[in-house]
Amino acid sequence: MKRDNWIFWTIGSGSILLMGVVLYLNYNYATSLSLNKQGIFGDMFGASNAFFTGLSFTGVIIAILLQRQELKLQRKELELTRKEMKLTRNEFETQNSTMRIQQFENTFFQMLNLLHTVINNSSLSNGSIDIKGKQIFDWVNENISGEVINFARPKYFPTPITDEAYRKMFEDNMLKINKDDICLIYKEVYNKHQHLLSHYFSTLLTIYKFIDENKISNKMLYFNIVNSQMSTSEHLVLFYHYTSFNDNLDLIILVKKYNILKNLNTDLLPIKNFAEWAI
């Protein structure tokens, strides 16, 4: 760019110098002539005027070319400015995205800590035994399994009865238990300890909804973090709750949408095909 400008300035300077030399030579030649011939020589300046007009036109062209070069330079500078602004905007968007993730994670882990606090502060008494924290979920599952056995226990015994006859009646009754029976049993256990379990499930659902409603790219990562904090018994109780309360649509939708119960240990269910009925 600078080299091109140098060429233009050289042409312009050369043109001015040439005009000066021509004028100087004409003046010296004219002053050397007699008065009669000077008039005739003056008429010859019409051609000089045309020559100078041509040089002026050359100057105009040079000025236009210089202006064109300046405009081209301005366009390039504008393009560089636009690229710089785009880079700045992208960097700003990246910073905003990072800040949003940080804000989300701060709230998310605070809510996770709140869930742990709810669990750790929960307790119930079973006779002389105090059950606290995650042990409550173990106890709930044992309760459900016990109630299922009681549900299947033969109500009337023939007289006399043998152990073999009792076992056969019990197995027959177990085979008759269906999904509605299991849900009824869980609801009875839930109602006994609703003050503990309702607080737990409302907090857990709030966390699930918080993840789902936020505009983050990898939501499954945070659902997996929550699930990794849950014990096997918690997953089982969540499964019973999800299956038994059909009116809790938010929980049902989120459990299905993010496959939250994918790692459920179905071997621990009192009825082996219960998972198939529920899902």
Structural account:
78% of the residues lie in helices and 3% in strands. It has 279 residues and is mostly helical. The radius of gyration is 47 Å and the shape is rod-shaped. It starts with a helix and ends with a helix.
Topology diagram in text:
Elements: H1 2-31, H2 35-43, H3 45-120, E1 123-126, E2 129-132, H4 135-152, H5 163-176, H6 179-192, H7 194-213, H8 219-228, H9 232-244, H10 249-257, H11 274-278
Antiparallel strand pairs: 1-2
Helix pairs in contact: 1-3, 3-7, 4-5, 4-6, 4-9, 6-7, 6-9
As a whole number of angstroms, the C-alpha radius of gyration is: 47 Å
**Average pLDDT taken over every residue:** 80
Helix/strand order, N-terminal first: HHHEEHHHHHHHH
Q: Which percent range describes the beta-strand content?
A: under 5%
- Contiguous helical run count: 11
How would you sum up the global shape?
Answer: rod-shaped
Low-confidence stretches: none
Major β-sheet annotation: 2 strands, antiparallel
User: Which structural class do you get from the secondary structure elements?
Assistant: mainly alpha
DSSP, total strands: 2
Oligomer: single chain
Distance between the termini: 74 Å
- Spatial sequence of strands, sheet with the most strands: 1-2
Helical proportion, percent range: over 70%
